[in-house]
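Per your request, structure below.
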């Protein structure tokens, strides 16, 4: 118990620069006498802690004191190395120099235990470059400019003061103070194009709203019941909450869930093709059936001529 309390005192002094014996006693919920004994123990261990009088009095550390590796347990050293490994995996700590130096200082091998790649499959490096640019903009408090494609498909130039990268659902977002709207806005990274980092710096606005806070658009939903073929079970288990999935004796899966109303929700279910049958609600079942009829109409003349190339759109002949 005492060793944990000694660390707590040390961390408080490192963070705040100093504290009175009474403040430490209140923080640690012990007597002032116990705190004085702990201070003596730290001093005996070689920590340059001292008591000062006057306005800046209280318990303080000598200027320039840094935390020795000997004050960290083996487990704590490993946790620091694991955290740095995670940062390097995300691209936040790019060259690994700090990881290498601390590994040497602790005389411990840094286990290469994690890798994170935020880019899509087939990405040629643009997404990683974008993360590096956004990181620099946030940490250096520099203004960003980019073209942003809205839900109507039209792009508009935005100038923003970036605050934080957020991951929600399956997408990455940038929270930033929009100079055009004079308010915090959330921008989906996949809709940002021609992003440039300006030399201008800014003073951050606060407080930063929650990602689901004011300004979020409420999407109406409806309760759906869908039967999925076993052929697409891998997708169903990836894309729906397991608690909403009921396996059937024939291998099919019944899913009951809240689902977005509108074209997106219907289109997503259509992506399963003939392997998904909507059982409820009837209106959604009719809507998807009508869309399927339209799709079928497009391909009834599958062997006709392509309106673009003028060639036949029939199946390709095997090369012999």
């Amino acid at each position: 118990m005492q060793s944990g309390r000694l660390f707590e005192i040390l961390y408080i002094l490192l963070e705040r620069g100093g504290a009175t014996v009474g403040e430490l006693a209140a923080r640690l919920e012990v007597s002032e006498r116990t705190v004085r004994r702990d201070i003596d123990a730290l001093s005996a261990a070689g920590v340059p802690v001292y008591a000062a009088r006057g306005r800046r009095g209280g318990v303080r550390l000598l200027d320039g004191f840094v935390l020795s590796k000997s004050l960290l347990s083996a487990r704590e050293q490993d946790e620091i190395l694991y955290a740095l490994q995670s940062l390097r995996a995300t691209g936040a700590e790019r060259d690994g120099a700090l990881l290498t130096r601390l590994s040497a200082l602790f005389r411990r091998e840094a286990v290469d235990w994690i890798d994170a790649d935020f880019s899509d499959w087939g990405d040629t490096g643009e997404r990683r470059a974008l993360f590096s640019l956004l990181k620099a903009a946030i940490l250096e408090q520099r203004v960003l400019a980019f073209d942003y494609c809205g839900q109507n498909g039209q792009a508009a130039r935005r100038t923003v003061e970036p605050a934080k990268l957020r991951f929600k659902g399956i997408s990455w977002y940038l929270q930033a103070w929009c100079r055009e709207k004079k308010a915090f806005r959330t921008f989906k990274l996949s809709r940002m194009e021609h992003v440039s980092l300006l030399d201008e710096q800014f003073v951050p606005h606060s407080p930063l709203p929650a990602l689901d806070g004011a300004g979020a658009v409420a999407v109406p939903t409806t309760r759906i019941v869908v039967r999925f073929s076993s052929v697409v079970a891998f997708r169903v288990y990836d894309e729906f909450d397991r608690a909403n999935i009921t396996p059937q004796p024939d291998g099919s899966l019944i899913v009951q869930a809240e689902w977005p109303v509108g074209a997106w929700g219907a289109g997503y279910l259509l992506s399963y093709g003939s392997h998904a049958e909507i059982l409820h609600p009837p209106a959604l079942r009719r809507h998807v059936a009508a869309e399927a009829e339209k799709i079928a109409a497009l391909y009834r003349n599958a062997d006709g001529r392509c309106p673009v190339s003028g060639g036949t759109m029939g199946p390709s002949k095997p090369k012999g």
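The radius of gyration is 30 Å.

Regards,
D.
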